[in-house]
Structure formats: C-alpha cells, structure tokens
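Tutorial handout. Part one gives the primary structure; part two gives the three-dimensional structure as tokens.
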Amino acid sequence: MDLQLRVRREGSQQLPVLLWRFPRPMRAVASSPHGGGLGPRRWVVNAQVPPSYARRDPDHHLGKLAISLGLPGKGVGLMTAADVRSYASGADTGVEVVATVGLSTPTLAAAPPDPRPLTLVGTINIVAVVPERVSDAGLVNLVATVTEAKAQAIRDAGLDATGTPTDAVCIVCPDDGPTHHFGGPRSTWGARLARAVHHAVLSGARC
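Part two.
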C-alpha cells in the first residue's frame, strides 16, 4: 500500500493528510462523506480536521482538498479529528490495513437514543487493500466483516463499545483478474482482512 503523509494549510493551522494514490482505478466500497458507495476510485485521503470542526458540507470540503492535492478523477475522502500521523497498520497474507483510531466517543451500536450532537473527535477510519478482485456483493460483505473485527478489537481493548458514532471504512481491490464472491469472516479474503483490521484497531486503541 503506497501511503503518503502530506500537510495542508487551513487558516492558521497545518493539518496532516494520509494519501493513497493508485496507478490505475481500483474497485472500492466506502462509507465516506466523499466518494462513498461502490465504484472505481483513483485515490483515498484521510484528512485530519480540528476537534471543533462544524462544517455541514464535508463532501464539498474534501473535493476541494483533493483538487488542492492535485488528485485526478474520482476518489474517496474521509476525515477525523484524531491525529492521522498516529495511524496503526495491520497485514495478513496480502491484505493491508491502515486505521486511525480515535476513541474519545466510544459507543454501543444499539445504545438508547442520545440527544447530544455527533462529534468527529472520536472516529475510527479504516482503509484496507485486498489484492484480488472481489464482487460488489463480496465487497459489501467485507464491510460487515471489517465492522465485526473492529468491534472485537475494541472489546479486546477493554471498552464496552462497538465503535464510535462517526466511523468510516474504505476497502479497495483490483478491477481485473479472478473474482471472489464472498467476504465473510471465514472466506479467503474476509478472514485475512478481519485479522489485519483487528490488529490495526487494537494497536491503535492501545496507543
């Protein structure tokens, strides 16, 4: 995974950005504010924002950021108030994962309603690369597997939580070659991805 650390200026602040560029478009599934959904993507950014971030147009904001970084075509943009320079990584038999783990707002997915506004301060962003082609349905299945592995890592870190209110995930794979149709935790790539995600999130939670 070709990961770069860049710095951008916003007002008086210097804010870091994690950046992945792909030599050719990759198949992607993402829950991100910018470039989310399923389809070909050329790049991924995970941008740090201030804890006080209150903009209501993150899609537009991330699109302008991509232009400022000289990124061509369509990509995926994520954001977090966690320090992206303190990212954690995991790998397993060809799968590579990078996670930025902010846990100041841990929550249970099925918790009672909370009237408080959402905050970006506690966000877990996960970017993963699978080295072989996966079908659309398989990619959606991999998102579920990533989420299960993330929740397992948070439990193993000693927290009574499944994530945070603003977590996001992006998984990319090649758009050619033999196609895998399954992404559950006991499938070939699902099992490897789950282990890599668990390692990355647990490492980040313990930092």
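Part three, for discussion. The mean pLDDT is 95. Residues 3-205 form a domain with the L-amino peptidase D-ALA esterase/amidase fold (CATH 3.60.70).
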